[in-house]
Amino acid sequence: MSWPVLELTNIILMNLLSLIFLLILIFSFLEKEKRPALIAAVLLIANLAFWAFLNHSHEHPIVRAINLVIIFLILIIVLLIPWRFFPDQKTITTSTIKTESIEQFDERNHMFSRNALKFYPELKELYYRSHPEYQKVDELIHRKSELGQPGGVYYEPLRSTAFKANFSFLAKLNCLAESKPEEIEEEAEKKHLFSEANRRKIREVIEILALHHGAADIGFTSLKKYLLYSHHGRHPENWGQPIENNHQTCIVILVPMKIAAIRKSPGLEVIEESARTYVEAAKIAFIITEFLKLLGAEARAHTDANYEVLLVPAAIEAGLGQLGRFGLLIHPRLGPCVRMSAVTTNLDLLTGVKQRATGRKWEHISFFCQLCQKCADNCPTGSISRGNAVPLARGFPHWSIRQESCYSFWKRLGTDCGICLKVCPFSKEDNPLHRLVRWYVSRNIVNQKIALFFDDWLYGRKVKVKFTGIERKQTGLSNL
Ligand code: SF4
Ligand code: SF4
Asked: Which of 140, 354, 412, 471 has a CB 3.0–4.6 Å from the CB of 480, allowing a cystine?
């Protein structure tokens, strides 16, 4: 390479790299992320100095050789960026699994349901007679005070009562989840209303309604059996009753959580934000349910503590994202910082409509989780599995957490823990910089390794968490 060409290449690379560091600096500053802002500032200065040195010392043969090697390496990395390739690992996404063979999940086995048994001695006896394997561990969890009550590390009388108010408000709305649709007398009118063309319009209105009321995204999927719980388990009125829902379509609504609140985890801010977004998600689900009922269709809202649908697999089926190692949905744009609700209806809102991409489109998220493990490394209770082997549950491999140790820790804190959410590299603001990074990691595994290296460096691999009045060693499963 002749000197003017080399010099020009150096100047171009210097400016491009400087632009990247400058963008990181600006966005980190706006996001109030001190560490990445500081590192980006240092890198910006070092980058300018480095290329200036190369240009200044170009006559030295060793410097010239290093210069050429660096340009060559950068060129390879840049050429690799847009190329999409991932190893063929069929087990890490649900998109290749026959869902008909998946066992339904019994809501009675959910940790929240098992925790509530302490208030209903008869149900408790009934349950542990058939599930003695959970009795010992659940009794330890039952002994701890409930979220929002005195005893939790972060308990504050007024703030804890305030977040509880959201959930008790939601409980009062449960009666709205199911009611009869409006009668439509005229058969012809009904036929027109639910014609294929009109159903497409209904779907469009639902999307507009959801976004208008604050949803960040909405997806539609057919209501497969494995997306339904097998039995009710959260409330004594219908505990143990089989779930009978013959609806055709499941609509999944996604509401964004504020990243700034998640960053404060563990603390009351997390459960406050969680409560707020559960209310928002429920509000949208109830409005869509009412809309469908007014049209004469059957509909049911699935909102906090009143679900028949498992929201995470439903969201994945609806093409809203992929399952993360910590058992939560990772949305391609919003990461895991979302809360969801759903509406099921007997109307077919899928026929004749181009479906959006399902799980396979977002399988890069599953690959990233295999590399990353940051949530598992930072979970104070060891509730998240490590390694590449995806655990088997309900007859198919998928990530799920040890709910006993996780929930026990929540009760100890008196709030949602959320540390795994906080450290996840996908938990970033939805701004141009992070959108660019999300696109970058969606292309191939080399990009993912580079992005993960920088994420660890900029934000830290092991995130320091301040536990108020709680020793880290006291948080493990042994201390349930
Ligand atoms: S919420 Fe906390 S305890 Fe539960 S899995 Fe996440 S990091 Fe672990
Ligand atoms: S922290 Fe890493 S491994 Fe865990 S869910 Fe997020 S991306 Fe996946």
From this structure: 140
